[in-house]
Amino acid sequence: MKNHLLFLINPFSGIGKQRTVEKAIEEVIDHEKYVVEIAYTEYAGHARELAKDAIGKFDVVVAVGGDGTVNEVGSSLVNTTTALAIIPTGSGNGLARYLDIPLRINRALQVINHMEVKDIDTLKVNENVSLNVAGIGFDGHISHKFAKLKNRGPAGYMKLITKEYAKYKSSVYRISIDGKTYELPAFMITFANSSQWGNNIHIAPQAKIDDGLIDVCIIKEFPIYDGPSLLISILDQSIDQRRYDVVTQAKNIHIQSDLKLVAHLDGEPCELGQEAEIQILPLSLRVLVPPKDFRKNLLEPLMELKELFPPLPKVPGIPKIIGGEKQ
Question: Which domain holds residue 66?
């Protein structure tokens, strides 16, 4: 019997890739093993609606988009037998990168052909679900600002962090971690299921997505001049060794503030009121992942550099010289 696949394509993620995706699905997916249907999302929350409707009708729902699309689809499939697959076309692609799902469309589709399923944990945040990383404080603040940017690539993200960092003020939080309560000012608090936000930027280098634990990373208040070194420690995956970073593991967390908790779930902005309950949902989501012998495309990191370092703009007034003659 053939497995049924439903591809949910976000036409606003990876603009221009839609026809490429449809063509690749036709060419790469093993149609002797799979029956394929394709649907396009039309508005925020539509992927969630379509994924919920697919439960029991499809074996796999494929999220074609960025972290927001993956969250909408995956959160709808928690505690069901329907599996999630990912074709990453967003700017961060945090969960896909953690699971070693290729960023090239054809290679990601080949992962589906292998039908290797892994059970992963998810996080329940009040009545919401996070698959990858949730946070409050500065990263929540940045997610709200970033959602409004036109340039949502890594360069735009780093520029925004630089702009907002000096202006941001820490807040005081009352946090209970598996029953132990603390009150402290914090720059940000991250609840990590996997190790990274996206773009291979790791906030919780030791986090594992199937250990039944939340890695709680509390970055305390720090002098403004220490900001650059903290950023470097995040980039080189040594943040958990810094004195301003407190890391612990937990199954249940309760957090309160006198102000609204400005937060993000998998990079997507959200507001949680003045308190939030975060708990681990162990092995609650089935995800298609590359098999152990599935080799990564060695050129893929080079392709990513094109996003990080776009071509320099042409300088007007300098003539192009071809064959020794000015053009």
Answer: 3-115+297-308
Q: Could you tell me if 216 and 141 lie in one domain?
A: yes
What Rg value do the Cα atoms of the chain yield, rounded?
A: 21
Number of helices and strands (H, E) in the chain? 9, 19
Q: What is the mean pLDDT of residues 23-52?
A: 96
> Would you say residue 194 lies in a domain?
yes
Q: Which residues of 99-136 are buried (b: 16+ CB within 10 A; e: fewer)?
A: bebbbbbbbbbbbbeebeeeebbbbbbbebbbbbbbbb
pTM over 0.90: no
Beta strands in 141-213 (DSSP E): 171-177, 180-192, 196-198, 201-202
Q: Are 278 and 142 within one domain?
A: yes
On the question of pLDDT at 188 being above 90, the answer is: yes
The confidence score (pLDDT) of residue 307 equals: 46
One domain for residues 138 and 277:
yes
3-state secondary structure of 186: strand
Distance separating alpha carbons of residues 152 and 273, to the nearest angstrom: 27
pLDDT tens digits, 220-259? 888 787 777 777 787 787 777 776 677 899 999 999 999 9
Burial (CB count <10 Å: 0-12, 13-18, 19+), residue 4: middle
Query: Does a structural domain hold residue 232?
Result: yes
Say if 206 falls within a structural domain.
yes
Q: Residue 60's pLDDT is what?
A: 98
Which residue do the tokens 């590359």 mark?
290
pLDDT at 274: 95
Question: Is residue 62 a contact partner of residue 7, using CB atoms and an 8 Å limit?
Answer: yes
